[in-house]
């Protein structure tokens, strides 16, 4: 097993009122080497908190978060993170942004590795462009190249394409899929789109809110590229929507969380 949460609870204490908010309650997840695990659920159910625990940005209030059998005590380049917002250094060009996260070698060796990863995301021609000259999709490709250049064993992605248009998102989804296959990485991918999760994941884990917990898991052993309209995918989508309705009724629909049911927003 590569990473795991064992009976993890996370409480955020408001320093002003002293009151605690239970973001996660008794969550257990095992991430196996080679998984493409998609975490879905309404907003506020603790998806980002789960990812931040795996990244080492947060520590659990109870339970254990392990990576390769050892407790996670902080961030590490072995666990690379790609966020939704474009987090490039605006004063560095594309090549420098990527080379900055290469862990070893002199400058020209680091740039060589950066070029290789820019090639993987199809941006070699933009090596000398500045971040503000790039589209949103290109910035996210650079962010992915930068994270891959750290050579992480585990890639953590928090709604990485949530702010991009549908067409660009689909394209980047496919790129992440081929990087995952080609580079032999393990991915934990947060999305609120059931369809995106079903198009990508080997596993889809549904969380529910108030407090955040694991609701159900589906193993998806369909080959790629997947057809969102195939009978298998349609059946899975229906099944997930049904579980989601059951869990949101149990929580009270007043929570206001949202989740995208299909790719029909085009
Ligand atoms: N740093 C924090 N301080 C206080 N509350 C937080 C913090 N991070 C998350 N929360 C709360 O924990 C709950 C889960 O949040 P989050 O993990 O961001 O959910 P999701 O990513 O599924 O939308 C929410 O109620 C959120 O307001
Ligand atoms: Mg989130």
How would you describe this protein?
It is a single chain. With about 270 residues, the chain is α/β, with parallel strands linked by helices. The protein contains 7 helices and 10 strands. It has a 6-stranded mixed β-sheet with strand order 6-7-8-3-9-10, sandwiched between helices. A 4-stranded antiparallel β-sheet has the order 2-1-4-5. Helix 3 crosses helix 4 (about 135-150). The chain is globular, with a radius of gyration of 19 Å. The termini are far apart. The model is unreliable at about 250-255 (pLDDT under 50). Bound molecules: adenosine-5'-diphosphate and magnesium ion. The site of adenosine-5'-diphosphate has 12 residues, from strand 2 and helix 1.
- Helical element count? 7
* Element string (H = helix, E = strand): EEEHEEEHHHEHEHEEH
**Helicity level, as a percent range?**
25-40%
Q: Whole-number average pLDDT?
A: 92
Instruction: State the shape.
Output: globular
Which structural class fits the helix and strand makeup?
alpha/beta
How is this fold's topology laid out?
Blueprint (H helix, E strand, L loop, with lengths): L2 E11 L6 E12 L4 E5 L6 H9 L6 E6 L2 E2 L7 E4 L11 H6 L7 H14 L15 H14 L4 E5 L7 H18 L2 E5 L3 H7 L2 E6 L4 E7 L11 H21 L15
Parallel strand pairs: 3-8, 3-9, 6-7, 7-8
Antiparallel strand pairs: 1-2, 1-4, 4-5, 9-10
Bound molecules: adenosine-5'-diphosphate and magnesium ion (MG).
The site of magnesium ion (MG) has 3 residues, from helix 1.
